[in-house]
């Protein structure tokens, strides 16, 4: 009963913090600089708090289907904790550059290492959670569903966030190398110059 009360209290506090964060971000309380600071610190703190909560869950005594089940469950919670903590460290690196050094965060940066490292750890954690024995066809169907969801998320992320960031950070191929049209125009102008000099 005490565990349920603790969970309910933690869930209520997390929900209230999320609502307060959303209100702060919407109305930019204190101005843009303060809102940016709250945004950076809150995201890092939330990720680190989630990591600590996952580590606490890994040390609980689970009621499961034996020792192998318990070990797999603990491994999954530890991987989930590692994912959240690495993300929080990435956010800490971002916050340091933005709030302490007062300069724009470069792309790629040290923060991106944390963000990118969190993804495979999260995937490994989800796959490490123990499940009841099921048929191979059901496992294959679950894996295909997961791949479809991951591919969809990647496509949406590329169109909305990653693609524009990539295009903004790297010079385009047309800027680096002259196009075929410009080469033809240059060749035509040089040949016309040579005919006029004759």
First and last CA, distance: 100 Å
Structural class by secondary-structure content: mainly alpha
> How many structurally independent domains?
2
Strand % is under 5%
Q: H/E element string?
A: HHHHHHH
Q: How is the biggest beta sheet arranged?
A: none
Question: What ranges have pLDDT less than 50 throughout 5 or more consecutive residues?
Answer: 173-185, 192-198
The outline comes out as globular
Helix proportion range = over 70%
Radius of gyration: 26 Å
Number of strands: 0
Total count of helical runs of at least 4 residues: 7
Mean pLDDT: 81
Describe this structure in words.
The protein has two domains: 1-133; 136-192. Helix 2 runs antiparallel to helix 3 and helix 3 (67-100) runs antiparallel to helix 4. The radius of gyration is 26 Å and the shape is globular. The protein has 198 residues and is mainly α. Helix content is 82%, strand content 0%.
Features:
single chain, disordered C terminus, 7 helices, 2 domains, 198 residues, mainly alpha, 0% strand
């Amino acid at each position: 009963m005490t565990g349920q009360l603790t969970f309910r209290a933690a869930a209520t506090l997390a929900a209230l913090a999320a609502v307060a964060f959303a209100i702060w971000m919407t109305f930019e309380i204190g101005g843009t600089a303060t809102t940016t600071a709250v945004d950076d610190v809150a995201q890092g703190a939330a990720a680190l708090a989630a990591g600590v909560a996952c580590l606490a869950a890994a040390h609980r005594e689970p009621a499961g289907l034996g020792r192998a089940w318990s070990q797999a469950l603990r491994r999954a919670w530890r991987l989930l904790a590692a994912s959240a903590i690495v993300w929080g460290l990435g956010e800490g690196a971002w916050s340091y550059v933005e709030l302490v050094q007062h300069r724009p965060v470069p792309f790629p940066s040290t923060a991106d290492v944390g963000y990118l490292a969190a993804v495979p750890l999260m995937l490994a954690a989800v796959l490490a959670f123990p499940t009841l024995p099921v048929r191979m066809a059901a496992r294959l169907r679950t894996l295909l569903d997961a791949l479809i969801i991951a591919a969809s998320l990647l496509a949406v992320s590329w169109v909305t966030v990653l693609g524009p960031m990539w295009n903004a950070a790297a010079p385009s191929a047309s800027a680096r190398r002259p196009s075929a049209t410009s080469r033809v125009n240059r060749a035509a102008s040089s040949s016309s110059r040579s005919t006029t000099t004759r």
